[in-house]
Model the fold of this input.
Amino acid sequence: MTVSFDDPDAKNDRPPPVRPAFDRQTWKEIAHLLANLPSSLVGFVYVVVTVSTGAGLSVTVIGLPWLALGLAGARLLGRGERARARKLLGVRIDEPSRLVARGRGRGQSGGGFFARLWTGISDPVAWRTVLYEFIRLPWSVLTFSVTLVGLFVLWPVLPYVARGLTNVDRAMVRGLLSPSDELERRIAELESDRGVVVDTAAADLRRIERDLHDGAQARLVALAMGLGLAKEKLLEDPDAAAVMVDEAHGEVKLALQELRDLARGIHPAILTDRGLDAALSSIASRCTVPVKVTVDLTERPAAAIEGIAYFTASELLQNVSKHSAARTASVDVWRSEERLLIQVTDDGRGGASLDGGTGMSGLAERLGAVDGLFVLDSPVGGPTTVTAELPWRRRGTA
Done:
């Protein structure tokens, strides 16, 4: 939750000091107190009618949909109250994340009718707004009366009275109309991360399909045609058939190598069998720059985390080969409490950036999707150091 105030003198999430004179902030607070009564009347009548009719009709087919619709309207009331508090009281509160129905079946990213219905009925943001409107009516009657009397009778002390009353309003807005802090923020982050994961998975599937179609599949088709021609020539021209079979043998070797490379790009067998140390040493041996690999792990993380760490280091070493003009590089992997850290360093020319077209931004997004961090330090002239941090999950856990 972020809270601040319009007045430039505001410090530590507090309104400016109250003064006997009627300054701009004081008049805003008085306006808020006078507007409390009509605003709370509208809100109170709305939630009473919505909740009571929804509860009364719950035995019918329209009761629960009516209640869900009414709670959606309560969300809008809460938004209006946050805007009013922001303008008149200087209280700035983050808007709650949008309501997302969670489907249970495969392919139901937005959920079915009953999933959306249950999500609407169980919306904590809407129910807190309902509670806010119930509580606020008697309070608004009191504040309206005191402020109105103060305008004619308690004029000298009205700024102090207005400040005291609006501080209660500020507390109510923060307590009942704020998002559920970390939970609400986390929901919003997960919604964004889910999109990144889906897009990444779709891109990987397209890459695999393209590699199969343009590589191994095309080579195997050519191999089948060559063997067919060799079969036809086997009796009439055995020497030519033998040459064609020899060529087909070479094609088989190339096709197998392409399939191995493709399998390595999906999930290498060496990573599954022997872990990060052996897998990273394998990709380091294929790098055009001499690479020193140091892996200090006493146990293996979850397979998914291990795979992400492997592909992160692999892509970073590809960047070293293609763009760094480095003479040496290093890969260090270690565990710090419940985090797995990978650091790739090279002594190249530096100047790398997240928007430099080297895939760095994609790596940062992929790590962020699993609660990871990606830090790039690459001054012009080098060296370049990339630190990736992933959550440590024990092997065998999700």
Observations:
- Residues 33 and 143 are 6 Å apart (CA to CA).
